[in-house]
Amino acid sequence: MIERLVSRFAALPPVGRGALWMVFAAFGFASSSGMIRHLSSQLHVFEIAFFRSLFGLLYMLPWVLRHGVAVLHTERIGLHGLRAIFGVVAMISWFTALSRLPLADAMALSFTTPIFTTILAGMFLGEIVRTQRRLAVAIGFVGTLIIVRPGATAFDPWNLIALLSSASFASAAIAIKRLARTEHPNAIMTYMTLFITPLAAIPAAFVWQWPLLDQLGWLAAIGAGTTVGHMGLTRAYAVADATAVQPFLYVQLPLVATIGYVAFAQKPTIYTWIGAAIIVCACLFIAHREARGGRPRDPAMPGA
Question: What is the pLDDT of residue 154?
Fold first, then answer.
């Protein structure tokens, strides 16, 4: 049965396989988001971020031991380090947003990542961003303003932390796509956790408290969920253009909204759904334009 599913998966076109990897990643990220929210009432997010990285590194060690350290050979160590810096900023700001905002709001704002990716690709990769895509970016930010509502009394400044996370994830996505052209997905994952763990340990040291046994169980589960998510994300980027498969991450919103409602009695507002719908439509249009031939100048980066 499993072999039949694997063979059918391998027979899918690259975009189809990338889409399924993205859905796989969505389940990992959504489940870990709920666990982070739960545990943030007991431990500081800096410490949660450190243990997420530590357990993620432990989960990747069996792969390194099985294949040998030679699989980690790279001539792009600087890009791995840069990706890690973006990753640790994204992770800490994302964990902070999850601990302070309703889960559905935080997740909806995270959908701006492809919009930031488009902007950064045009700025730093020489990708041609035509009028239609600029309009989609503008519409996407309108959706963001509907969720954030900066002029309303309900404005929450923690929304800005969620947007910082999206911008940092977009920067990391560009680095991942470059690395995926020459590096094994598991090597990218291993280097990420190898570099992020000591970086995350620095802020964690200032708020440190030894976790209890049950808290360690939650931390291990968070590490597993986010590792699964990043594995799916990295493999999706390796087989297909990021702009083509990124929209499939949007299944996180109904998943996280369900978790927030059942576990934390959080009911998303109409502004969250309207804003998220506008952002999703804008990002789907960006992906559609990319698929129709909006190719970047850099041949090593066929999709931001």
Answer: 63
